[in-house]
Amino acid sequence: MTPLSAIADALVRLRGMPQPADVPVDPAAGTVVLGARRVAAGALDWEPPVAGTVYGALLNFRGALAALGDAVHAPPYKAPPRAPVLYIKPANTLTAHGAPIPVPEDAPELEMGATLGVVIGRTACRVEAREALAHVAGYTVANDVSVPHADYYRPSVPSKCRDGFCPIGPWVVAASRVADPGALAIRVYVDGELRQANTTANLIRPIARLIADVTEFMTLSPGDVLLVGVPEGAPRARAGQRVAVEVEGVGRLENPLVPERELLPGARA
Amino acid sequence: MRRARVACSGGVHEAVADGEGLRLADGRRVREDEVVWLPPFTPRTIIALGLNYAEHAKELAFGAQAEPLVFLKGPNALVGHRGVTRRPADATFMHYECELAVVIGKPARRVARARAYDHVAGYTVANDYAIRDYLENWYRPNLRVKNRDGCTAIGPWLVDRDDVPDPMRLALRTTVNGKVKQQGNTRDMVHDIPTLIAWLSGFMTLGAGDVILTGTPEGVADVKPGDEVVAEIEGIGRLLNTIADDAAFGRAGPGGSAA
């Protein structure tokens, strides 16, 4: 496995670029330095900056678990989660900054799952919490899109794994550029309107603890991504709207929602 | 053709079955016990079915599902033929699951049942272990049960689709230390292969290298360190796996945690 741990500024992957580049970015301004020019992220054609397996942690925000109330003790759950509850956003879901999120005909309204993505730099197997962050190459922004579903008993593959349901990027900011990943503001805007605000300070398992508890039973490899959790009150959006997920100091990930039928191969012919 | 990926003589090779042994792509002939068997293809998305045999669902006290119950796994879970799988010291019920694995060969999106096999590259055998002690009722079966390192043995061969005239009529069986523990037939699947490909490709595009583990029949039983478990499917292959304890993995103490 090639270690990813040596990002200096940010890992950037643009369409047509044979290799990812390590270049300075300004997460607050949404700009990237290419050659001698400072370019707005919105003016470029992006690829997802990661190619490993993307795992997510369910109900890792205190408010998200609290929102379930006493239901966590009732059937079918019978008890709150003990170990991290994980899921996978498979390869078909990954899509880039600026790419359309397909809105299926059977689900006109989608949930926007704003989250921080922890990008693994070194093979992490049975890592202790105090050493966990040394295995992180950097951080990215993800939108864990779902068809709204209230039931967490079964893995919701048909709700979470549709094509294009995991925008990720625009880039991976070097871990060294993020002073405290446990205190980052997360905001979601739909058509420019602030619809959600939270912070990674509200994680039940902070990032280092999460990596330790996950790698106790499964190895994370360089390039794999661990989504730290989606805050409660995920906003919904429809075709024709634009969603932006912002993680302070990491980036702003923006995508339009487009009816799936308009994106089918040949649909515009 | 039966194809394998193996490591030997300092390299990773593609190989094909050759009598009792293998022939590497570069022409060398090797015995099956002088290579390290890797998963026979490079996996992309790993999709697994739960409760896809009616009798097995009954055994676990579930009714058969109206909609297929699917979950996903990461590449960390896979281990090849003749591999070793860890049983944590605190587990009280760890069982094998012999499953027919269907490997996708070309992209499939909204594929009709009648065209489903066009998208299949071939078949292999999987033994998808579960440790029931770690089951929780959140996204069940949760990854701590089903996505543990090395808990999904797969192989030995990827058998070309056209060499398997009817994948829905294959005998499956699992032996532990030579004793038959699990027997079934793929004809007893609740959702057959064309239905699964049609249903999955209806909401997600399947790609080359994606694999569908189609579920296991009844007859699961606990396995212990030292046990030799053979999952076998008629015409596809015979997949050997050995169970090892925490000590073999450098772990000590209750819960298998060194910390």
How would you describe the overall organization of this protein?
The complex is a heterodimer of chains A (269) and B (259). Chain A has 269 residues and is mainly β. Chain A is 10% helix and 34% strand. The longest helix of chain A has 9 residues, at 207-215. The termini of chain A are far apart. Chain B has 259 residues and is mainly beta. Chain B folds into 2 domains: 1-38, FAH (SH3 type barrels); 39-254, Fumarylacetoacetate hydrolase, domain 2 (Alpha-Beta Complex), CATH 3.90.850.10. Chain B has helices spanning 54-59, 143-146, 193-201; strands at residues 2-8, 11-18, 21-24, 29-30, 36-38, 46-50, 69-73, 78-79, 83-86, 94-95, 98-104, 120-128, 130-131, 152-160, 171-176, 179-185, 211-213, 228-233, 237-244. In chain B, a hairpin with a 4-residue loop joins strand 3 (21-24) and strand 4. Chain B is globular and about 50 Å long. The N and C termini of chain B lie far apart (47 Å). Chain A binds chain B through residues 53, 55, 58-59, 76-79, 81-88, 90-93, 104, 125-126, 128, 152-158, 161-163, 216-221, 224, and chain B through 44-45, 47, 67, 69-77, 109, 134, 136-144, 147-149, 203-207, 251, 257-259.
